[in-house]
Amino acid sequence: MKLLLHFLWLNTILISKLKQLFSLRRHPIPRISKKYRGFFILARPVNVFISFISILLAAFISGGLSHYVAVLSACLSGAFITAAANAINDYFDIEIDKINKPNRPLPSGAVQPKEAVYFTIICAIIGISFSMFINYTALIIATGSAVLLYFYSYKLKRTVLWGNLTVSLATGLAFIYGGIASASPKHAIIPAMFAFLMHLGREIIKDMEDVNGDQLNKARTMPVVFGLKKSKITATCVFTVLFFVTFIPYIFNIYKIWYFVVVMAGVNTVIIFTVFSMWKTSTMHNFRKLSAFLKADMLVGLLAIYMGRI
To answer: What tens digit of pLDDT does each residue of 259-273 get?
Structure first.
């Protein structure tokens, strides 16, 4: 377990170093380069990459990659819609980020709010356009997801649990989306369920991390309304359900033995560590670290599913 946690921590350090590479505080920087770097960071490239890979893997485990035009279109569609969602989220969170994340592109001034809106619209249009190369069902899901994620940032994020459920649902739909692209969405249901639960628990932890800024901006998230203790209980319940649900594909012989090995060593150990650490150390720094751990662990979860299907 120590070796695994060390590996995950190295992943988080790598992500941190990549962010530093595109840091907005390096001088001197040509203004145009600073602007492009700001848009790049605004899109949250790690999240965009995870979205692309999730859809690709969902297509692979569902029906294969023979429908390569549809699969590639789905991956690019999901990636651009994710970028749009991240940008509009920062737009609506600019006042909160001035407190919690002052070096983000908008509060730092690298990107202007109006520019973030234009960037969002362009990415959303591109993402929805790619869905037209798949089928009408994909077009409906892509359009619905883009609209839903807008309302998440506009209103739902600042409500108790509704925002958490919304972004978790959108993440789960990414796997269904990949399954549709490969013409066999039923095989994507299990990874979609895993993604939903993992993101739901992580979203609650992120709310605990942002509680100070949310309080000042009157966002009614779970930690603000009910406190950290009840938020921890809720997150613990979600992770407990996820822990036991991971056994189902192996018990019913849906995924092979290597799935079980990787998910037990690489996913469930991190879930257990997260729960214990969350209760032991209630600091914003620790919540941020756990959130990064869980993001890295999503890649391990994707690996487990892949190993279970080959």
So the answer is: 999 999 999 999 999
